[in-house]
Amino acid sequence: MGKIEMVMPKMGESIMEGTILTWLKKVGDPIEQDESVLEVATDKVDTEVPSTHAGVLQEILAQEGDVVEVGKPIAIIETSNGSATENGQKELSAIEDTVTVVADPEVAAIGIPPTPMTSQADSNRFYSPLVKNIAKQEQIPFEELDTIPGSGKEGRLTKKDILSYLKNRSGSTPSSLPVTETVAVTSPMAISGEDEIIEMDRMRKLIATRMVESKRTSPHVTSFVEADVSAMVSWRNRFKSSFKEREGDNLTFTPLFIEAVVKAINDYPMINISVDGNNIIKKKDINIGMA
User: Fold this and answer.
1) How far apart are the C-alpha atoms of 79 and 180, rounded to whole Å?
2) Among 16, 28, 226, 229, which residue has the least CB neighbours within 10 Å?
């Protein structure tokens, strides 16, 4: 038996703390790897936090309403180190993560088109990102998801529930597993004996997943135009020392570029649009995020 500290995860580059909203598990409850354990709120997003290990929730270190810094322990999970169950869960989780990240035609180049799910607009049931990813891979519409009994808190659908349903539904292993094997066999990626293979940590997997989703949902266009920024450089050089002394931070070019983008959008508002079917939605507000 071993004990693992579950810590407040880092959910964004600028997010330094999170507020415990709700514990979905109580002390003594069994937990599967990747099963949601609690809900956390930050200044950018409210999200469920999955467990990194399978085991039993032995102790809760942060109560609902507590504000906890990123990296600080929030719970203790008792695990059975090296057990077949835990190893199996790790393998299954790795397979699911691999399918989510690489089973995209633009990334793996294997001709597997993404399968869109039916809209969740008519469903009042909450589904975690992991459950929705599995449903997308297995082509399960939300109407069908709504009929699956959930064993989680308040009847929530867990990974175990949907995998069990898929096994009974088809009488065989979920199709996500063979897809991963196909990727491994047919992918054109070449690996030599001198290459180093490094397993991605959970944050890198999440970043890769979001990048693939961004590529799939938003057209990516790059344009290069030369510009003379000599005046900008001279202005920064003139004020960077006084700015550093007054604010304690360096004066970078980033806010200047952002201001230039905002002014350009004001001059050309048709840049600030989105497409909804055959309609163009012209945005009133200008919102810019810099990562």
Assistant:
1) 28
2) 226
The rounded distance, in Å, linking the Cα atoms of 285 and 289 is 13
> What is the reported pLDDT for 186?
41
Share the mean pLDDT of the chain: 76
Q: Pairing state of beta strands 46-50 and 30-31?
A: unpaired
Residue count of the chain, please give it: 291
As a whole number of angstroms, the distance between CA 44 and CA 129 comes to: 17
Q: Is 209 helix (H, G, I), strand (E, B) or coil?
A: helix
Distance between CA atoms of residues 283 and 256, nearest Å = 23
**Residue 138 pLDDT class (50, 70, 90 cuts):** confident
- Residues pairing with 68 in the sheet: 18
CB 98 within 8 A of CB 137: no
The SS3 of residue 95 is: helix
Query: What predicted TM-score, i.e. pTM, was given to this entire model?
Result: 0.36
Q: Please, where are the H alpha helices in 84-153?
A: 84-102, 105-108, 129-137, 142-145
Quick check: 203 pLDDT over 60?
Answer: yes
**Mean pLDDT over residues 205-232, rounded?**
84
> Is the pLDDT at 195 greater than 90, yes or no?
no
**How far is 119 from 69, CA to CA, in rounded Å?**
35
Question: With contact defined as beta carbons under 8 Å apart, do 136 and 112 qualify?
Answer: no
Interior angle at CA 84, CA 80 and CA 85, nearest 5:
70
pLDDT digits (tens, 9 = 90+) for 51-90: 888 999 999 999 998 999 999 999 999 987 644 344 444 4
Encode 230-278 in three state secondary structure: HHHHHHHHHHHHHHHHHHCCCCCCHHHHHHHHHHHHHHCHHHCEEEECC
